[in-house]
Amino acid sequence: MFDFLKKIFKGDESKKIDSKPFKKTSKPKTEPKKPAVTKSKTLIKEPNKKTKPKNEEAQLKPAKKTETKPSADQDDTPKKDEKLSFSEKIKQGLKKTRDAISGNLSALSFTKNIDQEFYDELEMTLIAADVGYAATQQIISELKDRVKKEKLEDGAQLKSLLKKILSELLQHIEKPLIHIETTPFVILVVGVNGAGKTTTIGKLTKLLLDEGKSVLIAAGDTFRAAAKEQLQVWGDRNNVTVISQDTGDPSAVIFDAMQSAKAKAIDIVIADTAGRLPTQKHLIDELAKIKKVIKKFDETAPHETILVLDANTGQNAINQIKVFNEAVSLTGLIMTKLDGTAKGGIVAAIAKEQPIPLRFIGVGEKIDDLKIFSAEDYAEGMLE
Ligand SMILES: Nc1nc2c(ncn2[C@@H]2O[C@H](COP(=O)(O)OP(=O)(O)OP(=O)(O)O)[C@@H](O)[C@H]2O)c(=O)[nH]1
Ligand SMILES: [Mg+2]
Fold first, then answer.
1. pLDDT at position 105, please?
2. What is the pLDDT of residue 295?
3. Three-class secondary structure assignment of the chain
4. Is the shortest distance between the CB of 233 and ligand 1 below 6 Å?
5. pLDDT, tens digit, 9 for 90 and up, residues 223-258
6. What are phi and psi of 75, to 5 degrees?
7. Is residue 90 a contact partner of residue 97, using CB atoms and an 8 Å limit?
8. Which is the closest atom of ligand 1 to the Cα of 192?
9. Which of 21, 165, 319, 366 is such that its CA lies 20 to 30 A from the CA of 349?
10. Can you list the residues of the chain whose pLDDT is less than 70?
11. Which protein residue's CA is at the shortest distance from atom 17 of ligand 1?
């Protein structure tokens, strides 16, 4: 079960403190000690158990299925988010994608014919949902094989199998964020303009606080007007410190934040950065420089480098992953805005073509709208 129930706000750590302007001479006087890695533990628990017996369809259904309100799948009217279970919320978020797919597949449950025409239609449907060519081919060919092997005849069985195959593919990128207990654990957040970095940082902070961690945010977007203020709003909402400076070297701000977190024994630093396009080479190179400076403070940092992707981007997400990965060696992804797109299949394309762990998905603009990625829930959300 999803365990965010314990809220441990560490009073003095979570209080807002002054964000002092960065001093030019602020190289640490004493060589910062390499943080001792004591033990590693799961930062965010996975929503689902890992082992799933093969060939047991029932096992593919989310464990929390029993909590599901029967109307959640069909009813289009927005529910009170707080009342939705984890998988319901994901389902709600994937509604547009699911509608696009199941609109095309709706006749499937009743059809007796699984013929080439059906496979062609399915192929087009998956491509239209941005599953991508390679993943679509893999899914269809596996589906054909298993339909034959398992002697399936009707569309309902086939739909279950399709969901299972999709879930298996998505499992390649279902890997939770692991917190190594080093202080501070540094998360660097990168991505193109408007992908949802800053908003996601606000939501992620909330998740981490709910896990009992203390968090400090670094306003590393020193480029866009009002970026600092936007981040400060999220800091205030979460009651955590945001370190920012008036003038603009992102590396310096992040370095400053790490020092501050170290001094206050804060668990996690999340660093925002300015949006940049994969084609803006000098800006992409700047990220590598930021990473270098972070390593001056702690050579094991950043412990997590996350690319935030906007689901509306579609297939371009693959290219973004390639370019950012080359520049800063990504360790994780976050896919945002799944609630606003019919292109949620892009996650399957990523699992096939650029399988970097998808840590979280964004399914809305509110503070609780960031969810741990679960392959099973996602497949269920896409196909119902
Ligand atoms: N519907 C929806 N909107 C989102 C989600 N995540 C972010 N947004 C919205 O996307 C817009 C851009 O978000 P930001 O967080 O400012 O994006 P950013 O990547 O920091 O943008 P820059 O700093 O300009 O590069 C905002 O209006 C957010 O509310 C999501 O999961 N769902
Ligand atoms: Mg931003």
1. 64
2. 97
3. CCCCCCCCCCHHHHCCCCCCCCCCCCCCCCCCCCCCCCCEEECCCCCCCCCCCCCCHHHHCCHHHHHCCHHHCCCCCCCCHHHCCHHHHHHHHCHHHHHHHHHHHHHHHHCCCCCHHHHHHHHHHHHHCCCCHHHHHHHHHHHHHHHHHCCCCCHHHHHHHHHHHHHHHHHHHCCCCEEECCCCEEEEEEECCCCCHHHHHHHHHHHHHHCCCCEEEECCCCCCCCHHHHHHHHHHHHCCEEECCCCCCHHHHHHHHHHHHHHCCCCEEEECCCCCCCCCHHHHHHHHHHHHHHHHHCCCCCCEEEEEEEHHHCCHHHHHHHHHHHHHCCCEEEEECHHHCCCCCHHHHHHHHCCCCEEEEECCCCCCCEEECCHHHHHHHHHC
4. no
5. 988 999 999 999 999 999 999 998 789 999 999 999
6. -75, 125
7. no
8. 25
9. 366
10. 1-84, 104-112
11. 196
pLDDT value for 384: 76
Both structure tokens of 169: 């593919």
Report the nearest atom of ligand 1 relative to the CA of 201.
Answer: 15
Query: Of all atoms in ligand 1, which is nearest to the CA of residue 272?
Result: 20
Nearest alpha carbon to residue 206 among 179, 233, 235? 235
- Residue 336 Cα: closest atom of ligand 1: 31
Q: pLDDT (tens digit, 9 = 90+) per residue, 64-114? A: 333 333 333 333 334 444 556 777 888 888 888 888 887 766 555 546 577
Exposed (0-12), middle (13-18) or buried (19+): which is 155, by Cβ within 10 Å?
Answer: buried
Q: Any known ligand binding at 364?
A: no
276 is in an annotated binding site: yes
What angle do helix axes 316-328 and 281-297 make, rounded to 10 degrees? 40
User: Which one-letter amino acid corresponds to residue 70?
Assistant: P
Closest Cα to atom 30 of ligand 1: 337
Mutation probe of ligand 1 site: the residue of 365, 368, 372 with most atoms within 8 A of C-beta = 365
Q: Is 199 in the pocket of ligand 1 (CB under 6 A)?
A: yes
Question: Using a 6 Å cutoff on CB, does residue 204 contact ligand 1?
Answer: no
Provide the whole-model pTM: 0.81
For ligand 1, whether the C-beta of 339 sits within 6 Å is yes
Is 235 a pocket residue for ligand 1 (Cβ < 6 Å)? no
Q: Give CA–CA dist 341/99, Å, rounded.
A: 10
Quote the tokens at residue 81. 């988010």
